[in-house]
Design brief:
Layout (H helix, E strand, L loop, with lengths): L7 H20 L18 H33 L1 H40 L6 H7 L12 H22 L2 H16 L3 H13 L17 H19 L1 H35 L7 H27 L5 H28 L6 H24 L3 H7 L19
Helix pairs in contact: 1-2, 1-10, 1-11, 1-12, 2-3, 2-5, 2-8, 2-10, 3-5, 3-11, 6-7, 7-8, 7-10, 9-10, 11-12
Length: about 400
């Protein structure tokens, strides 16, 4: 039997969000706007831009909310010190092991991709990459920045837990009351968006982008940390919050869609004439992050309502998601380089890349991870069929 109260909906949500990461990073190969990455396919499309800003609006916010929720669950069940020990074993250790390997492999694939772009042949020329990313540090957290910040948030949670426990009861009640109001009232998301909009207004087009720096950046701490703290507090108020999110999930989804349409229109204006509307980046920052809150709450409610239990497919994808997260960038870059010279349109190339990356990620998981020590490192010891499902990136075998 499954553990009573197990939130399979969150495992399912995490699995779908993880797969969307493949689609997002494939779309980056075909975007039309400025890109911080040195590689891009010759075939570009506004559809790729739309896919990118669509998925980016909710994917990482959902991850950080779920991560905060399950960190709070671990603290409640085991205490802050045991939580930190568990998270370091599941997050910091894999990061330390896989980051050196992944940055070498990613760099090689990038060099090959850039060589194909510049000369039409497979090869490696470091000077080509240097021209594309002048002044950039060769060492960064890459797509693993999520793990990196999550590690820091877990450390901060453990350090601050005793101080939180020592606060007077009236302070706890005040914080709880404020969170309940912000998370359950229709107007709450408008206030939750304000700090995110302030941060985003300092970035191009009002959208915060991860720096990949090993030095934690204050804007990224504020942006991602707010969603993480929302998850921490959601655990304390799940009995009241989750039924409400289930009840209002479609309202929030539709409202988020309406705001997102406004964001797209604002993006179009900004890209055509950035000076046409004064302070347009601040406006985009507010609307885009408002979409993030609305869709994050909507997705949690939708999955609690419609996918509260697991089937074999979702369970398998959920169990493979940590491995897929780590290695999928190698696929999106490598297969992107392979389809670069093919006489195909954007959508055909994207579909090929997504399908190939998905297949290779799942195949390598089955052959190299699922029944090996790597699987134990990422997911813990495998449970018998019907036992609790591991949720390494967000939950944690609580």
């Amino acid at each position: 039997m499954d553990q009573p109260g197990r939130l399979h909906a969150f495992d399912n949500l995490r699995a779908v969000m993880m797969w969307l990461g493949i689609l997002l990073h494939v779309a980056i190969n075909h975007t039309t706007g400025p890109s911080p990455l040195p590689w891009r396919d010759a075939q570009t499309s506004p559809i790729a831009d739309l896919i990118l800003i669509f998925i980016h609006a909710f994917r990482m916010p959902v991850f950080f909310i779920l991560a905060g929720f399950f960190v709070a669950l671990l603290v409640a069940r085991r205490g802050p010190r045991a939580m930190l020990k568990h998270r370091m074993r599941r997050l910091a250790l894999p990061f330390a092991i896989f980051w050196p390997v992944l940055i070498v492999c990613t760099t090689v694939l990038m060099l090959v991709y850039v060589h194909i772009m510049a000369r039409g042949t497979v090869g490696i020329d470091i000077t080509l990459l240097a021209k594309k990313s002048a002044g950039a540090s060769p060492f960064n957290t890459m797509h693993m920045w999520f793990l990196y910040y999550l590690i820091w948030f877990c450390v901060l949670t453990a350090l601050l837990a005793p101080a939180w426990a020592a606060l007077p009861a009236r302070v706890h009640r005040a914080v709880d009351a404020a969170f309940r109001a912000l998370a359950t009232r229709w107007w709450g998301v408008f206030f939750l968006t304000i700090p995110l909009a302030i941060v985003g207004s300092f970035y191009r087009a009002g959208v915060m982008a991860s720096s990949g720096s090993f030095i934690p950046q204050l804007p990224e701490i504020v942006h991602n940390g707010l969603f993480f703290v929302a998850g921490l507090l959601a655990h304390r108020h799940q009995d009241a919050l989750f039924p409400l999110l289930v009840k209002t999930c479609w309202h929030k989804a539709i409202a988020g869609l309406a705001v997102f349409v406004a964001v797209v229109c604002a993006f179009v204006v900004f890209t055509s004439d950035p000076t046409r509307i004064p302070h347009i980046e601040a406006g985009i920052a507010y609307l885009y992050n408002l979409t993030s809150w609305l869709w994050s709450f909507a997705l949690i409610g939708l999955f609690l309502r419609y996918l509260p239990s697991q089937n074999r497919v979702l369970r398998y994808i959920s169990e493979s998601s940590y491995w897929v997260f780590l290695v999928h960038m190698l696929g999106t870059i490598g297969f992107g380089a392979m389809v670069y010279s093919l006489p195909l349109g954007v959508m055909s190339k994207m579909l090929l890349n997504v399908a190939a990356t998905t297949a290779v990620c799942l195949l390598t998981y089955q052959l190299l991870v699922r029944h090996t020590i790597v699987g134990v490192l990422l997911n813990g010891s495998r449970k018998p069929k019907g036992a609790q499902v591991v949720a390494p990136l967000t939950a944690g075998n609580a």
